[in-house]
Amino acid sequence: SKFSKILLEMKGEKGGESVLIGLKDKDDPDDGSESKIRLNLTKDWGVYELKLRENFITADLKKLYVVTEFVFETKPQSIYVRKIQFIK
Fold this sequence. Notes:
The longest helix is centred in the middle third of the chain and has 4 residues, at about 50-55. This protein has about 90 residues and is mostly beta strands. Helix content is about 5%, strand content about 50%. The model has no long low-confidence stretch (mean pLDDT about 95). It starts with a strand and ends with a strand. It has one helix at about 50-55, and strands at about 5-10, 20-25, 35-40, 45-50, 65-70, 80-85.
């Protein structure tokens, strides 16, 4: 991949929402073991910039098939996403 970061612009409905962001390559098993990063959101729009190689170490960036996943662990939550951008 020629990209080094992913930029997400997100907010929670009430603030305090927690979501895991993940990436998977074609060889990652479908068992939840892929690398994920926790983001804690506020009720205001925030920009979150994540380094791909450092934060998603299990993902082969040349073989991605899930380019962004949102995982909620304990309870339903409402979040809003208005931008997902890969950056060189």
